[in-house]
Write a structure and sequence with these properties.
327 residues, alpha/beta
Length: 327
């Protein structure tokens, strides 16, 4: 594959080339991984940056509806928007529905928008393993805003914070024990909480819910990357479009403050270090499983663990100690 030519086409804004490039970086084949690394490196030389926004929320909260309304709001203001939507994969078949593009019908038809659904596969944390590289490709293609929609399973959706500039948490009014449901961990990494469906009969409930979250946020420890008043809770209605302008203004305020105070580049540098270490971990695990003698030893120990002859901890330690000795 001529990665140089593909990189040039991606940077020229060719949508088909961008789709092909993302398919390449999502491939697990060893030869594709080498091409993907070269491609991403070539695109990165352009030095283009977009505002990366992560979005999470429990199923049914209206993530796809919000993204479509928010995406249309942004393109109407002359911005180019890319959406990377991650769908959960079946643990049994490995398949995903990948229906986000269908749910965002109006946005998907807009020439200033690009929507790419991807399977989560076995990746935990709410995002696909190669989402970070897909974000970099969208930046190189000239998009101004890249939205990363996570799987939406609730409490483990923290990995997306390692690849975005802003993290939004979408919440529903009258959702039961939401403060318990979303847990402190994900609230601590959220920059803005958006109470969706603030319209019609749910408007008053949404106001109370927003007030509750505002109070809860004041109990969290102050973060160095936030100006006064952040993180904050806001109300939006994806159906009516209410609150989108205020939400976008707050996002611009927060991202601008972080740029002015040197936190934008510092955060991205820290994220790059994080993903370097992740690549090393995955690479070591892959080499471990590709080693024939170790693979045979692991198969024997796996059987011993299955039959109860060895504990999982003992068997794992034997494999790792053998790896240390180069066996």
């Amino acid at each position: 594959m001529d990665t140089g030519d593909l990189a040039q086409r991606v940077m020229a804004g060719e949508r088909r080339a961008l789709a092909r490039a993302i398919t390449l970086v999502e491939s697990a084949r060893a030869d594709h991984r080498a091409d993907a690394a070269a491609l991403v490196g070539e695109v990165a030389k352009a030095g283009r940056q977009a505002l990366r926004i992560g979005l999470s929320g429990t199923p049914g909260v209206g993530k796809s509806t919000f993204i479509e309304a928010f995406g249309l709001f942004l393109v109407e203001r002359g911005l180019k928007v890319a959406v990377l939507a991650v769908d959960p994969s079946s643990a049994r078949s490995g398949g995903s529905i990948l229906g986000d593009k269908t749910r965002m019908e109006r946005l998907s038809r807009n020439p200033s928008a690009f929507i790419r659904p991807s399977p989560s596969q076995t990746q935990l944390g709410g995002v696909a393993r190669r989402s970070r590289e897909a974000v970099a490709l969208c930046e190189g293609a000239g998009f101004d805003v890249v939205l990363v929609e996570t799987v939406g399973v609730g409490q483990s959706e923290t990995m997306v914070a390692e690849m975005v500039d802003l993290f939004l948490l979408l919440l529903a009014p009258a959702g039961g024990d939401e403060l318990q449901g979303v847990k402190r961990g994900i609230m601590e990494i959220a920059d803005i909480l958006l109470v969706n469906k603030a319209d019609g009969a749910l408007l008053d409930v949404a106001r109370r819910t927003c007030a509750d979250y505002s109070g809860a946020l004041r109990l969290l420890r102050k973060r160095a990357q936030d100006p006064e008043g952040f993180p904050k809770a806001l109300m939006v209605s994806a159906v009516e479009g209410a609150g989108l302008e205020q939400a976008w203004a707050e996002m611009e305020t927060l991202s601008g403050w972080r740029r002015d105070h040197g936190l934008w580049e510092a955060t991205r540098a820290e994220q790059a270090r994080h993903w370097f270490e992740e690549e090393v971990r995955h690479g070591l695990l892959r080499r471990l499983t590709e080693n024939t003698s170790l693979a045979e030893k692991m198969a024997a120990l796996r059987e011993a663990v299955t039959t109860g002859q060895r504990t999982p901890a003992e068997a794992a330690e034997e494999v790792l100690s053998g790896f240390d000795r180069g066996e």
